[in-house]
Batch of 3 targets.
Target 1
Amino acid sequence: MANPPNLLNDDGTASLATAFLTSHHGFRRDIRLFAGALGRVLAGNTSNVEALSKEWKSYRETLHGHHMMEDTALFPSLRQQQPQLGEVIDGLLAEHRKIDPLLEEGDNAFAELATQVRPCVRVVGSLGGLLHTHLETEEKHVVPFIREAKVFPPPSNDVELQMYAQGFAWSSHGIAQEVLDKLYELLSPELRAKLPEARAAFAKRCEAVWGTSHAGASRTSIPDL
C-alpha cells in the first residue's frame, strides 16, 4: 500500500478511526505471522501446532466480530448519512460473504494442523489476498467519514469490560506508544485500568504462539514488522 493511512488524525488527535485502523493493523499483522509460522511447521518445526490452532480460533472470531459490527452498525449508519457510499458498501458486504466460508474452511484446516499443514497454508494465503483488497477499500472510502467520531462507548458490564480490554490488547500490539496514548484517552477509566494486565497477558500469548512478542511500533495501519 503506497500511502497507508495514519492512525491519528491530521491534527494529532485520536478518533474511532484510530481504533478501527488499529484493528486493520492487527488483521494484517497476524495473517503475516500465520504465514511465517506455517512455513516453519512445513519445515519440520511442529512444537507449537496446538497454540497455532488455538490462535486461529481467536483470529477468526475477532475478524468475524469486526465484520458483524460493520454489517449491523457502521455500514447501515454510513449508508444513511453518506448515500454516495452505497455502491462501495455493497461491494464490502459482498466481500464479507466471500470471507465467511473461508473462515469456516480455516476452522476445519486448523483442526487438522498436526497432520496436514498445506490446507492451512492455502486458507491463510487466500484470506490474506482477500483482506488486502478489502482493508484498502475500507481505508480509502470509509475511514475519512469516521475521523470526527471521538467518543468510545464505555463497557456496560464486567463481561464487556473484559472483552474490550482483551480486544484493545490485541489491536494495540505493535502500535507506537504515542498513538496509544492518544487512543487510550478516548476510553473509560475502568477500561484503561485493565489494559496493562491485558497487554502483558497478550505479549505472553505471542511468545507462545509466534515465538516472539516483538511487533514494531507502527503509526499507520501497516505492521512495522
Target 2
Amino acid sequence: MAPLLRLLGAEEMAQKAQTVTPLDPRPPVEDGRLLDAYSSAVISAVERVSPAVVNIEVRHAVDSGRPRERGRRSQPERGGSGSGFVFTPDGLILTNSHVVHGAVQIRVTLNDGRVCEADLIGDDPETDLAVIRIAAADLCSAELGRSASLRPGQLVIAIGNPLGFQSTVTTGVVSALGRSLRAESGRLIDNVIQTDAALNPGNSGGPLVDSRGDVIGVNTAVILPAQGICFAIPADTARFVAAHLIRYGRIRRSVIGVGGQTVQLPRRVIHFHRLPVVSAMLVTSVEEGSPAHRAEIRTGDLIVGLDDHPIAGVDDLLKLLDEERIGRTTRLTLLRRTEKREVTIVPRESDRR
C-alpha cells in the first residue's frame, strides 16, 4: 500500500507542477509607474540645474623655501579642482572655500565647453563657502531654494562637474538634519545636511537639489571610511554667506582675543554656583592688547556665560561672537578659582581672512 501511496503522491505533485505559471520577470504595473515617476523627477531636476554646474580648476602657489632668482617665476604651483554652480545671471558662482582658498589662478569650464578666467569675490573657511565671478554671456543659473523645510527621507540629487563638459549625477535621500561638521579652520559648522547621495572626487562645491530642481545645499564633504555619509551646507546658510561675501568679501565676526579648550566642571562647583552647564571654556591664552587683555581676563579662568547665554565650551563662544557683537559692550561670566565673576568686554572685529 505504501508504494502505491507514494506513487499517487508523486503523480499529484507532477500535475501541480504543470499547472504553476512561470514568474513574470517584469515588475508589477504599479511599481513600474513609481519607477517611471522617480526617473522623471530626477531627469527633470538634472536637466534644469546641470547647465548651471561648472568645473573649477585652480592653481595654488607653493613656497619652496628657495631664494627667488631674477627672471624666473617666484614660486612653483600646484593644481586642484572642484565644482560649483552659477546662481545669478551675471556670473556669480557658489563653491567651497577649500576649493578656491589661496588660489593664484581660477579657471571655470562651463557646461557648454566655454572656459573663463574667474575672480574671487570672497570666501569663508568657517562655513566652507566661497563666491567667484566670471564674465560671460548667455549663462544658465540655478535657483537657491529653502532648506528649512527639508525632511529626513526626502529625495535629493547631487550634481557635480569634476572634469568639465559632463555633469555627474547621484541620487539619495536626506539622512539627517541639524548635523555639525568641523571646518578646516576648526570652527564648527552647524545645521549641516547629511545625505547618502554619493559625492564623487571633484564634486565639492556642486549643488544638492530637490526633486523640483531647487538648490537646497552645497556639497562639501564625505567621510571616506564610511559608506554613504556625505554632507552639504544648507541653502539658507549659503544665501546668507553669499550676500555678505558679495558685500564685504568676507564674513564679519567678532573676537575677544582668547584661546581655550572645553573642560568638564566639578559637580560641587556646578551645584555651589547653580550653573546651567556641566562644562566650560578654559582660557589657555590671552592675546596682548586684545579686548580680553583689557578686561583683565587671565589664563586659567573658566568662561561659563556670555550675556544671558550659557557657555559650555569653545564652540558655544565662537557661535555667539557674531557680527552684531562687534564694538558692543558684552557681559562675560567666568569662574576664577572658587569665585564667580562678571566682567564687561567689548569684542572687536576679527581680521582673519
Target 3
Amino acid sequence: MTDLRKILLLSTSTVHGSGFLEYCQPTITRHFEGCGSVLFVPFASPGGLPHAEYAELASRALKPTGLELRSIHAASDPIRAVHEADALFIGGGNTFLLLRELYARDLLEPIHQRVLGGMPYMGSSAGSNVAGLTIGTTNDMPIVHPPSFEALALVPFNLNPHYLDPDPGSTHMGETRETRIREFHVRNSQPVIGLREGAWLEVADGRMTLGGTRGARLFRRGEAAEELASGSDLSALLEG
C-alpha cells in the first residue's frame, strides 16, 4: 500500500536569534507546496496565550510562504474544518492541554484519517508530541487531565522535542532527559526520538529524513542511545 503521509515535525517553533518559524521557513514552504491555506490548531496555548493571538502570530510567520492561515478555534464545526482543510499545522505549548482539547472536540480520528490520506501535517513542539503514539515523553507539566495519553499515532514512535544532552559539568541532581526516557522504556516499548532544538523530521514518499542543524538521538528499549546526524534516513522507523 502506498504511504501518502506528508508530515513535518519540528522540535521547536523558535530557535535562539530568530523569529517564529523563521529558521525553517524554506522547509515549510516546500512542505506545503500546492496548498492554498493551512488550518491552524492553537489549543496548546503557549504561556496561556489566547487562541486568537496565537493564530495571528502563526499567520504572520506563514505570510512569506503565501499560505492563508485559518484557525480551527474560530470554526463553527471543527470536525468539518479538518475534513475540508488543505493542510494542518498544530502549534506548540502545553501538550496535556492540547491533547485534552483534541479529545474534547473529537478531532483525533478525523486528523488521523486525513493525514494518512495525504493531507500535509506540520507540528511544532507539542504539535509534534501529539503526532506520536502517546504523549508519555513530553517535557510539559500536566496542568490538565486529558482522557488518555494516546495521541494521533501519525508515526509509530514517541518524540521528545527540545531534547537536551546531559551537561557533564553540571552539579544539578535532577533527572536528565535521557534518564527520563530510560524510565519511560521500563514500562513502554516504542522507540523515542529526542529532537534537539533546530532539528525536525520530514516524512514524504514513504521515507523519513532528519533535517535541521542539531541532529537527534534515538532511544530504543534495552539498547544504547544512537546519535543521529542531520540528513539521516530514518525510514525504517516508519514500519513500527
